[in-house]
Design goal:
- This protein has 96 residues and is of the alpha+beta class.
- It contains 3 helices and 2 strands.
- Strand 1, helix 2 and strand 2 form a beta-alpha-beta unit.
Length: 96
């Protein structure tokens, strides 16, 4: 996701992933974008305000999210690991 956005000319400040094994690949493919190894469902929005100097209601800021791709990938033979997170986009989050 980050790489494609960057190719489109969008400055991506960070990517969040629960899987620490994704860090090296993320950082190699997206220099200048920070890897955040956290559970997005538990990460408070204030984290981004405090760590990235972003403003509330900034018309030039977008937050992009997608479901973990491993469940939907044809390459992976076992879907058990990602079954619990495949519907991440449907989860509800309290406003902060």
């Amino acid at each position: 996701m980050t790489h494609g956005l960057r190719q489109a000319g969008i400055d991506v400040i960070a990517g969040v992933d629960l899987d620490a094994d994704a860090r090296e690949t993320y950082e190699i493919n997206n220099p200048g974008s920070r890897f955040i190894n956290e559970d997005i469902t538990k990460l408070p929005l204030i984290f981004f305000k405090e760590n990235f100097d972003i403003k509330v209601n900034d018309d030039n800021m977008i937050f992009v999210g997608c479901s973990p791709c491993q469940f939907y990938s044809l390459i992976r033979s076992s879907k058990n690991k990602s079954r619990a997170t495949k519907d991440l986009l449907f989860s509800k989050r309290k406003k902060q």
